[in-house]
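Per-residue structure
===
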Amino acid sequence: MDGVSSAFASLGGFFGMFDPLCGPVGIFTLLGQGTLIACGDAGWGDEIALGVGVTISLALATLPLGLTIGFLVALAAQSEEKSLRLAAGIYTTIFRGLPELLTLFIVYYGMQILIQWMLGMLGSGGRVEINAFLAGMIALAVVNSAYSGEVMLSAFRAIPKGQYEAGDALGLRRGKTMMLIILPQLVRIALPGLVNLWMILLKDTSYVSIIGLSDILRQTGVAARVSKEAFFFYMIACSLYLGLAILSSFGLRYIDRWSRRSEVVR
């Protein structure tokens, strides 16, 4: 079990009562008794619940990093500096063109090779292994930022230049204008596209199972191989991903209403 999975396991006792799968009123606890998804030593419920926690944590950790990088890419893409526009264009072209799985391999194995090379230059040997959670977060954030940067760039272009001029007329510095005038409009305009990117990110977390992270797909895959009930456990995985998508859609719908609260009804 890797470090991230161990951390989740150590916190299991504290958060156990809130576990929607194996808690006191969890789905597996109430409906899975005597089956392969029973909680405890009798089934695979605890392992799958751990995988759900890892998947959600990875998506939530990746999202702010991807959005932050994407915002910087969007700023560079509309900069007056030609070199910044060129760099932003190259960045988005590369990471939108590469398959997500290949990007994950490049980050996971490439970081290990780079760190080993740097240690070798310093005279230190030994094998270096990168944490799978960190590698997955960086790889998914890079891919997410390439797409979110394009979404935000379109939102920037949809905001009239008069908004910037209004900030200047009020005596606001460009940073204040961005925070108080531009960003609220940017969020409202870009939100539909960013909602779709969140759904894609949630599904793309399944790639980290390839590098050994104990997410939903890896945990259900192990259970399927051991129990020889592949169809059953992969259907459980499908149900869990669909459940997360449905819950996300409710939350994102609320955020969308909140972002539009200032619009005048015509």
